[in-house]
Amino acid sequence: MFDVAIIGAGPSGNAAAYDLLSAGLRVVLLDKSDFPRVKACAGGLTPKALNLLKYDITPVIKKECRKIKITSSTRKSFILEDKNTLCHMTRRDELDLFSLEKVLAKGGAFHVERKIKNVVQTPSHIEIETGSRTFKARYLIGADGANSFVRKFVKGMNRLKQNFAVEARVRVDNPARFLMELEFPSLVKGYRWVFPLDDHVNIGIYSTTNRTMLKRKILTDFAKIKIGSDRLEGFKGYPICSGGYNCIPCSDRIILVGDAAGFAEGFLGEGLYFAIKSGQEAARAIVDSKRKTKSACKLYQQYIQGIKTDLRLYQWSANLFYTLPWACLKLVSSPLIHSRFVKGFGNGKTLKELWMIASKP
Ligand SMILES: Cc1cc2nc3c(=O)[nH]c(=O)nc-3n(C[C@H](O)[C@H](O)[C@H](O)COP(=O)(O)OP(=O)(O)OC[C@H]3O[C@@H](n4cnc5c(N)ncnc54)[C@H](O)[C@@H]3O)c2cc1C
């Protein structure tokens, strides 16, 4: 019997596993894919996400961006800049393999299980049936992403929203000549991005509503305009799950984390920070439950209050921004408005902390 079984070895699952193992618990990670595996994601890690990690990921950082160009079809572009890095560019196949190796080095077990058939909850433990074998653990962490299978074993998770994004790589000489860029097209609740890495540029489209804009043809045209090449490699898309601030993402012995819990933000689709943070809070709740003789689910609900507040703030910002994009962009383009925000962002502040900084006279 394991102390904890984790389904999904992405950022949330690995973060939970690492902390559980550090506390001396027996952990098994199950994933439907062998690693390295492809995951649709631009791999942009914000400073606050990087700050959470318990180990150095320098070997898998491909570029540090200190400038972000903001463009729109209606306004002159402007640049957000700080002396600190504003976004650390990674490749998800490499980042996730790197994190999984850290977990394995700590003594975690890992199994590729193509299909989880059933999850059975008993008063004392959980049984995970894969067809060929059954894994038993005291707790199960559902870290299996936006299309989570584990989610259906936790009641009340029906208030989540699935946004969507597509991405691709464009190989170019000297990608460093491109700035990180976010472009907000008019009449669309979403944006397009350009993320330079070491040997290619990652481009993509995020949409909160309109899936018709997520076509390969639209991304190819965007690449031609921005990068001067229409040679897209590895075009792929995936949902990004938000709205988790409305739900209780756990039951007696099952805890949901990351996208499985709807913990991506609804404004720009940032999910890595919330995945890592919620994975760590799930681990903390399980470790503390024994010490404090309290239910892990109750503790987890306490520990994720900050995540939920931040996610609500992001949703509120998204509603405001995508209703009045021109007014918001005009406001943000002013260095008077954005300079303090950008400095705090570069220092790894959360959105709540940034609002508190901004509201100080
Ligand atoms: C195109 C795109 C671009 C993005 N860019 C960024 C970005 O730049 N920065 C950012 O912060 N966020 C970004 N996101 C969001 C980010 O990718 C997610 O929020 C993040 O991956 C969530 O992490 P997770 O660990 O919860 O789930 P995932 O990363 O989805 O990991 C889930 C894991 O579970 C496994 N799994 C799934 N189902 C099963 C099953 N039934 N059985 C066993 N294993 C299973 C999968 O193989 C996978 O390894 C992007 C998303 C998309 C779609």
Q: What would the keywords be for this entry?
A:
361 residues, alpha/beta, FAD/NAD(P)-binding domain, D-Amino Acid Oxidase, Chain A, domain 2, 10 helices, globular, binds flavin-adenine dinucleotide
What does this structure look like?
The chain is α/β, with parallel strands linked by helices. It has two domains: 1-43 and 91-160 and 243-323, FAD/NAD(P)-binding domain (3-Layer(bba) Sandwich), CATH 3.50.50.60; 161-241, D-Amino Acid Oxidase, subunit A, domain 2 (D-Amino Acid Oxidase, Chain A, domain 2, 2-Layer Sandwich). The protein is built from ten helices and 17 strands. The protein has helices spanning 11-22, 47-52, 92-105, 216-227, 272-292, 296-303, 305-323, 325-333, 335-346, 351-359, and strands spanning 2-7, 27-31, 44-45, 61-65, 67-72, 78-81, 87-90, 109-112, 118-121, 126-129, 134-142, 161-170, 180-184, 190-196, 201-207, 232-242, 254-256. The strands form three sheets. Strands 1, 2, 8, 9, 10, 11 and 17 form a seven-stranded mixed beta sheet that branches. Strands 6-5-13-14-15-12-16 form a seven-stranded mixed beta sheet, sandwiched between helices. Strand 10 (126-129) and strand 11 (134-142) form a beta hairpin. Helix 1 runs parallel beside helix 5, helix 7 packs across helix 8 and helix 9 crosses helix 10 (351-359). The protein starts with a strand and ends with a helix. 45% of the residues are buried. Bound molecules: flavin-adenine dinucleotide. Residues 7-13, 30-33, 39-44, 116, 143-145, 149, 165-167, 204, 237-238, 240, 258-260, 264, 269-273, 275 line the site of flavin-adenine dinucleotide. Flavin-adenine dinucleotide is lined by residues 7-13, 30-33, 39-44, 116, 143-145, 149, 165-167, 204, 237-238, 240, 258-260, 264, 269-273, 275.
